[in-house]
Amino acid sequence: MRIPHWRRWIPRRESAIPLGRRLTALTVLSLSLVVLAVGTTAYVTTRWSLYRQLDNELLSVAQSMQSSVQKDPQSLGGLSAETAAIAGVSLLVVRADGTISAIPGAATSLSPGPTELAAASTQLVSEPHTVTSATGQQFRVVAQPFTRDDQSYALVVARPLTGTEETLRQLWLVLLAVGIVGVAGVAIGGWVVGNQALSPIRQLSRAVARITETDELQPIPTSATDDLGNLTDSFNTMVNSLASSRERQKRLIADAGHELRTPLTSMRTNVELLVADESRHMLPEGARHEILQDVAAQLGEFTSLVGDLVQLSREDKVTPAPEALDFAEVVRAAVTRARRRGQGLRFDVELDPLFIMGESDTLERAVTNLLDNAVKFSPPGGTVRVHLEGDILRISDEGPGIADEDLPHVFDRFYRSDRARNTPGTGLGLSIVAHTVQSHGGWVKAGHAAEGGAEFTMMLPGTAVPPEDIV
Hints:
The structure is a single chain. The protein is 55% helix and 14% strand. With 471 residues, it is of the alpha+beta class. Mean pLDDT is 79; it is low at 6-14.
């Protein structure tokens, strides 16, 4: 279905108008409608009140003059033009047959109409109404019926609407002037307030544009505590998170490039020797086999390093398993694997149940890394202690331990102490441990064991009772 041209044009025009102008325009439009409604209501209410007051005065005058006029309808009871002028009314008497009597010497352009004749004939008071004279002047008229000598009459009392209409006209001008001034004032105030209110949004817009142009992740200073302030805080949190993620990515790439360069260079050298030997046969007997074994070992190291890098590159949160996980079983499985690698070592294992929510595979790998570290540095016949008590797991060995200056850095990526430089490994095992434990909401730290070796302490939030047994 084809969209009409005017429907396509409107969104573009609206989107081209700045938000501040749109807010100001909407404010002015809303206030204009309110002022129009209030002004119209005030005008209509005042008009109704003035007309009601005028009608009551006309009825009062008609009732007060009826007794005098009833005595002599032809001369209107002797009322003079001065009396009518003082009352501010015009007086006529109309008989049911249409005969009209007026005050002698009083000039009036008012002529009784069907309503006044009906009041005389039916002897019912006419409702106050507006009539227009032959000269175009408007009057407010009321007819008060009475009888004299078996004749039906009606006293017609009229007052010009000139004063009332002038009052209403002045009221309308005042309301119009007040409305215009009010709308103008609100427009100016709305523009000022709108600019101040939208200042954080413009600041955010400039920050986004700056990040796009310069690629610099700089947070925005703010002191506001309203919704816009919360929006700015959320933006700053996002910027800080992106900056931290970028920094980790740069550091990971730099570290990976540094660590991958050594095995790749060694593999390249060995492969080049094998290729050269194909044509020159320069290698001594058995050297080719040794080089192939070296290449195989380097491939294993390379594969392990890549696997560790992939593990560390994961920044997603752990998705809890549908059922509780007994961490003691995870540790027990890791100890079984460590026993096969640590032939001749003694394992002192004491495990209390600890039910947690997490991934058994990544947790087992983290514990295995700690156990491999203990096996690697334990002397022949040494003891590796694995104690899980409450939510604390302690793994210690009887090796040389960790130097005090190395303790703050053992969980850094690719960090190798002087004692560990000649031992196999990628330098990422403890980093994987820290990453895994933190993703499960716990912590891990390194220290000195009572027996003189290294001790690693791990805490994971959990409970000693299975969740289904908790009341």
